[in-house]
Specification:
The chain is of the alpha/beta class. It is 45% helix and 11% strand. A five-stranded parallel sheet has the order 2-1-3-4-5, sandwiched between helices. The chain starts with a helix and ends in a 7-residue tail after the last helix. The relative contact order is 0.14. This is GDSL-like Lipase/Acylhydrolase. InterPro entries: Ester_Hydrolysis_Enzymes, SGNH_hydro, SGNH_hydro_sf. One of its GO terms (molecular function) is phosphatidylcholine lysophospholipase activity.
C-alpha cells in the first residue's frame, strides 16, 4: 500500500510539471522572405567562338610596304586575336585598297556584297583619311594653303559620319577599330611643321567621331612614324615596312586593351 502511495505521488508531481502552463511558449517560425535567384547568364568570354574580322579603307590596312607579306598591321592584329579569351578561331577578310579616299569608301559600302559581309562581322578594322589629305597636297603642290586642308576636313568629317552610319545601318554590334594618320614628311623635317598641326586636327576629328560610337576605339599612330630613326618606313618613304607594321599592330592591341575590350564586346572577348 505504501508502495502504491509513493507511485501515485510520483506521477502526480510528474503530471503537474507537464501542465501546459509550465511550458515556455515557442514562437511560431517566422516566414522567410522568398529570395529568387537573379537571372544569370554565362559570359560569352567563357564560350570561345569563331569570329569574322573585316578590314576596310586604304593602303595601311591593305598592308602595302610589308616586305614580309603577312598583311601589315591587319594581318598581325587578326593573328593576335586568336589568343583572346572568347575566340576559337579567326576568319579575316581584308577589303582595303591602296589609294582609297573616304568618298570612295562610301561608294564601296553601298555595294550589296560588301554590306552582306559587314552584317556578319564581329570586328571591323579600318584606316581612312590619308589619301584625302594627299589629294590636297598633289592638287596644290606648288601653292599649298592651310585653308584648303581645313575646308577638306569639314567635308571629311561629314563623310566620316556617313561611313559610321552606313556600317551601323547593317551591323549595330560589331567592334569598330579606327587607326589615326601620321606625317610621312616628318622624315625630311627635324621640327614640327604646320603640316603636323594639320594632321593633329584631322586625327582629333577621327578620334571624336570614334568616341561618339560606344562600340568603337581610336588608335593613335602618329608618334610611331615621326622621323625614320627606327627605320620603320618602306623604301617608298611613305608606307611602313614590316618593322613599322609590327609597331602599328602592337599599338592597335594596346589601344584596344585601353578601350576595355571586355566592355566593348559586351563580355564576349577579353585579352
Amino acid at each position: 500500500m505504501r508502495k502504491l502511495l509513493v507511485i501515485f505521488v510520483f506521477f502526480s508531481l510528474l503530471l503537474s510539471g507537464c501542465y501546459p502552463g509550465k511550458f515556455k511558449k515557442i514562437p511560431p517560425a517566422e516566414e522567410r522572405p522568398y529570395a529568387a535567384f537573379e537571372k544569370w547568364e554565362i559570359p560569352g568570354v567563357f564560350i570561345p567562338k569563331s569570329i569574322y574580322v573585316i578590314g576596310l579603307g586604304d593602303s595601311l590596312t591593305e598592308g602595302i610596304g610589308d616586305e614580309l607579306k603577312v598583311g601589315g598591321y591587319f594581318g598581325r592584329v587578326t593573328t593576335a586575336m586568336e589568343e583572346w579569351k572568347g575566340v576559337k578561331d579567326v576568319e579575316a577578310n581584308n577589303l582595303a585598297k591602296r589609294g582609297r579616299r573616304s568618298d570612295q569608301l562610301i561608294s564601296q559600302l553601298e555595294d550589296r556584297d560588301v554590306q552582306e559581309k559587314l552584317k556578319k562581322a564581329d570586328i571591323i578594322l579600318f584606316t581612312i583619311g590619308g589619301n584625302d589629305v594627299m589629294k590636297i597636297v598633289k592638287r596644290d603642290l606648288f601653292k599649298l594653303k592651310i585653308n584648303a586642308f581645313y575646308e577638306e576636313l569639314t567635308r571629311f568629317e561629314k563623310r566620316l559620319d556617313e561611313i559610321f552610319g552606313m556600317i551601323r545601318g547593317v551591323n549595330g554590334n560589331a567592334l569598330i577599330i579606327v587607326g589615326g594618320l601620321y606625317n610621312p614628311f616628318s622624315i625630311v623635317a627635324d621640327e614640327t611643321t604646320e603640316f603636323d598641326e594639320i594632321l593633329e586636327d584631322w586625327n582629333e576629328a577621327i578620334e571624336v567621331r570614334t568616341v561618339l560610337d560606344d562600340k568603337s576605339c581610336f588608335v593613335p599612330v602618329s608618334d610611331l612614324f615621326y622621323s625614320n630613326e627606327n627605320m620603320v618606313y618602306h623604301t617608298d618613304f611613305f608606307h611602313p615596312n614590316a618593322k613599322g607594321y609590327v609597331q602599328m599592330a602592337n599599338r592597335y592591341i594596346e589601344s584596344i586593351d585601353k578601350c576595355n575590350l571586355f566592355k566593348l564586346s559586351d563580355g564576349n572577348f577579353d585579352m
